[in-house]
Every structure is written in C-alpha cells, then in structure tokens.
Amino acid sequence: MDLTFLLMTLLKIVLICFVFAMILGAILTWGERKLSAVVQDRIGPNRASILGVTALGLMHPIADMLKAFTKEDFVPAGANRFLFAMAPMLAMVPPLVVFAVVPFGPGPDFVIAPLDTGVLFIFAIGGMGIYGATLGGWSSNNSFALLGSLRAAAQMISYEVSMGLNLVGIFMIFGTVSLSNIVLGQGQLLWGWLPMWGIVVQPVAFILFMTASMAENKRAPFDLPEGESEILGYNLEYSSMRFALFFLSEFVEIVVIAAMAATLFFGGWQIPWVDPQGTAGGWITVGQVAAFVGKVVFLCWVQLIIRWTLPRFRYDQVMALGWKYLLPLSLLNIVATAVVLAML
Amino acid sequence: MTGVPLSHFLVLAVALFTIGAVGVVTRRNALVALMSLELMLNGVNVAFLAFARWRGDALANAAVFIVMAVAAAEVAVGLALVIALFRHNRSVDLDEATRMKG
Amino acid sequence: MMDALTLKDALFWAFAFLTVGFGLMVTFHRSLVHAALGLMGTLLSVACIYGLLDADFVAVTQIIVYVGGVLILFLFGVFLTRRIDDIEVSNLSVNWMVAVPAGLVLLAVILYAVISSPLPMAPVDATGPTVEGIGNEFLSRYLLPFEVLSVILLAVLVGALMMARRELKPEERD
Q1: Residues of chain A positioned with their CB less than 8 A from the CB of C40
Q2: Which CATH number is associated with domain C2-88+127-172?
Q3: Which residue, A176, A177, A18, is CA-closest to A97?
Q4: Nearest chain C residue (CA) to B33
Q5: Domain extents for chain A?
Q6: What is the nearest CA distance from C92 to chain A, expressed in angstroms?
Q7: Is the ipTM of this complex over 0.90?
Q8: Measured between CB atoms, does B91 come within 8 Å of chain C?
Q9: Cys-Cys crosslink for A251: which of A28, A172, C114, C129, Cβ 3.0 to 4.6 Å?
C-alpha cells in the first residue's frame, strides 16, 4: 500500500473512467446521431466546426457540451433542491465505478481492482443506477416525472433479475465469478480448435443478457421511462448540464454493457489462439488490449444498430417480456447448462 | 486487520441495534418502523461477521446470507401489509390501526 | 505495513461514524424521505464494514439485496404515501421520552455484556475469498436451510401479492 501503488491506481482510474469510458461515451453521442442518419438515409451532424474543421461532425459532442454548460440551470418550484442536484450524479457515478473490475488486458496491471467477487460487484453497483432515475423523478415535484421514475424503477428491477440469472451459466462453466479468471477460462480451446468464448458455450445467455441489459439501460426499444421525444420521463424537469449528465450516463452505460459482454461472452482481451495465458508481454499485450477495446466498440455499435432498428414496446409488453419470457428462459438455460455439465 | 479490536465492531453492532430498537418503538409511521427493523438486523449481522472474522468460520457468512434473504422477505410482506393498511385506514399510522380494540 | 494498518483503522472509524450517524437519521429525522436516504447511507456504510471484515461476498450481497432491492421498495412506499411533507400526519415520534432512556439502558446492558465477556484478541489469518466457501456450505452441510429459504421466498412472493392486490369486485371475478 505504498505511494507508487496509490499513484498507479489513480492513473488507472483516470485513464479508464475518464479517458476511455467518458470519451467513448461522448463519441457515442455522435455515433448515435450519425448512425441514425445513415439508417434513415440522411446526412446527420456535419456543421459544427473548429477553425473550419468539421471532421465528419465529430466536433458536435464538443458543441453539445458547451451548450449544456451555458444553458440556464433550471430548478422547478417546490422541488427538493438537494435531491434534484444529487440525482444526475447518482445516475452518472455507478456506470463509472463498474469499470473498476473490468480487466482491460492480461494480468493485474490492466485492471483497477481485481476483485474476487467481480461480476457480483458489477451487479451491486449497477443496481444503484436506479436511484438516479427514481430520486430525479420524485424530487422534480412533477407528477409525470414521478410516473416516469416509477416506470423506470419497476423496469430496472424486473430486468436485473433475469440479467443476473443469465450469467449463472457462465459462472457454472468457468467455476468463478472473478472477471479476470473468466477471461482466462475463455482462452481454452474446445476440441482443440474452437476458442471457448462465452458466446460459444452460452449462446442463449448472450442474447438474453443483451436484451436484459438494454432494457436495464432504458434505451429503445425499452425507452418507456424517458421516451426522448414523446413520452414524459423522469428527466422531464432537467435542463443544462444536469440533463446532460443523465444523457451521458446512458451512453457510458452502453460502454459498460459492451465491456461486460465483451468480457463475459467475447473472451475479454483474448485474441483467439494467441497467448491464452496472457504472459507474452510486449506487442502481444498491446494487441490484446487493442482487441478488448475493439470488441467493446463493436458491441457498442451493435447496441446502436438495435436501437435504431426496433420500434418501441408498450409498457405491458416490456413487463411481460421481462417476467414471462426472459426469466423462464434464463432459468431453463441454467438447468440445461447444469444437465450438460453433469453429463460431461 | 489487527488494528481494530473485536470489541469495537461489537460496540458498533450494539449501537446500530439499539438505534433501530428505539426507532421501532417511537416511530408511528409503519414505513419508518420497518426501516428501523432493518437497522436492527444489520446490527446483528455486523456482530455475526465480526465473530466470524475472529473465529475463522464460514458458517457465519452463510447465516448472514440467510438473515438477509429473510429480511428481504420480511420487507416484501411488511410493505404489502402497509399497502393493505393504507387501503383500509387511508393512513399508515400505526397508532391509528386500532380497529381490533374492543 | 504500518501505513496499511492505520489506513484500515481510519476506514473503520469513518464508516463506523457514518453508520451510526445515518442510523440516527433514520430514527430521528422528521422527514420520511430523509429517513429513507439515511437508511441508504447506513446500508452502504455497513457494506463497507463487511468489507473491512473480509466478508466480500456478504458485502456485495448486502448492496444487491438491500440497496438495489429493499430500499427501492421503501422509496416506492415513501413516494406514494400521501401528504408526505406534512410532518404531523406522516411522521411523528411518540413516547420517545420513555423509549430513548429505555434504549440507553438496553445499550448499557449489552455493552456491559460485551466488555465483561472474554473476547479473542487476535483474528485468525485472512481467509481469502469467501464465495467458494459459502457455496460449498450451502450445497453440503446447510442444504436444508438453503432449500427452506427458497420455499420461504416463494411463499412470500405469493403472500405479498395476495395481500397487496386490490380486492376484485364480484363482477370482476372470473
């Protein structure tokens, strides 16, 4: 517990949480608009420029940030000021804290805190994301915002259950809940040639996990709690940077989901057939970190595509999907995994 | 972990338990009474785990796990009772729930 | 190593005071929402105390079950309680003049018991991660309590639903 250790940890926190997660989140706000434009046969953002450089509209996140900072910071009459200010922070912090246990590369140097309870820690911290929506909706002193926050809380609690159960199959196969060990386990080969990635051994769980976690993130087709354009959501009374925090937390959560899915189902930093123990060092390690980042970016893109492809569910359909289909399917998946494991 | 002696953890546990007990007795609102009950359970859990740490026994961890599950169940039933109470009395005040009084 | 020890001491004192402070907030704060927030603070600090006691699995479970589940239910209850800002109606402590001295007496008695009983001085060596140990206990020696627990949870699920459900009018029954 000496000074170098503390400094290294701080450096890792800054690099992972602020450089990686938040910048990727900010770029995703551009990616989402650009992608929606491509999907809908438009051009999309291309105007904001710094000294004439538009860079395909990549200057838009910066312009958005300036706009958010300079707008009026509005607090509705009768609002609980303390909670109203707290809620956006409570929404923003949990997705960033989750990155503490995600291994970006082989060995303990590429993870902030290699906890033995890795995945459970993610669920614990991720579950606290509900408070941002709940308290934000209630403290606005607005009935519509309160309704939105109740919808958000009910939806997030419902999907958290099946999200957790989906991963039990992975725990059973790799015999651990530590993310680093799960990644190491995925370096094994099936029948000598097929990488034992989570998506290979648990394909059903992957689909269920992505569904549940997108619902957890309250994005379309599950965006009923906020409904950016037409439904009034829990962030109804928010403006300026406080709204931007809610907005950005959603995009950071996309990165979190992508990082979790990459770690649990796509082998984390593993490059197939290359150095499964992660002991090579040198350029191979650089390549492995790059492979992880590449997988994360790919899974972010998948989530954006899904969001712009599917229409929104009705609320009763969201609830029915969560409780009547996802939950029984994930239980069935556990039973099937157990049977297969017992027969092997 | 040799810095803090066992008695400190036990004192913390007792303090939490007592605060909860006072809360259960004094609060009229059913919700806060339930919350105080949770404080008492947490105090007990802290004592459990402190003893476990000093005796090196995995059983206490399992016991705390069971306590938590039962506590969650208790809250679910308790809140359902509160809702039923609210529906009948239009209030969640425990002192007003006196219909059974002869 | 001295640094590490004092750091842990400092963490213990910080979380102990947070736990007690937030606990007092639950019991004595007049606003329902602040009581609920105090409960959140207490539960989180207690989870950190669990962490200091090397009970990583229980600490994480504490956050998942209490902070992620139970407390949300409480908040629902608080938000939906009518006339929330009206302290006279929503939240009044009665007979605290009896209860607080009684609580202090209770505290004194248990503290006396703690101080006067012989306690082991040194903890056993760190046991490492506890997840596997707990899992093995539950699937071998304590299988029956574990199964009973799941039956209890199922019963609670059904029972809570039955109680909280609006009673159907005769013509709505099928």
Answers
A1: 131
A2: 1.20.120.1200
A3: A18
A4: C27
A5: 3-343
A6: 21
A7: no
A8: yes
A9: A28
pLDDT in tens, C15-72: 999 999 999 888 888 778 888 889 999 999 999 998 888 888 888 888 888 888 888 8
Mean pLDDT (chain A) is 85
Tokens of A194: 């097929």
CA distance B99 to chain C (A): 18
pLDDT of C126: 64
Query: Measured between CB atoms, does B98 come within 8 Å of chain C?
Result: no
Q: Between chains, do C81 and B86 touch, taking CB under 8 Å as contact?
A: yes
Which residues on chain C are in Cβ contact (under 8 Å) with B83? 77, 163-164
pLDDT at A231: 67
b/e sequence C81-117, b meaning 16+ C-beta within 10 Å: beebeeeebbbebeebeebbebbeeebeebbeebeee
SS3 for A47? coil
Residues forming a β-bridge with A233: none
**Model's pTM, two decimal places?**
0.86
For tokens 């790919």, the residue is A298
pLDDT digit string (tens) for A39-94? Answer: 888 888 888 778 777 777 788 888 888 888 888 888 888 778 888 888 899 888 98
d(CA A28, CA A258): 12
CB A220 within 8 A of CB A39: no
Question: Is C174 exposed, middle or buried (CB count within 10 Å of its CB: 0-12, 13-18, 19+)?
Answer: exposed
In this prediction, residue B1 carries a pLDDT of 46
Stretch 33-72 of chain C: residues touching chain B, C-beta under 8 Å? 35-36, 39, 42-43, 46, 49-50, 52-55, 57-58, 61-62, 65-66, 69-70
C134 to B93: CB separation less than 8 angstroms, yes or no: no
pLDDT score, position A2: 72
The domains of chain B are located at 6-91
Find chain C residues with C-beta within 8 A of B95's C-beta: 94
> For chain C, what is the mean pLDDT?
79
Are B76 and C16 within 8 A, CB to CB?
no
Number of helices (H), then strands (E), belonging to chain C: the values are 8, 0
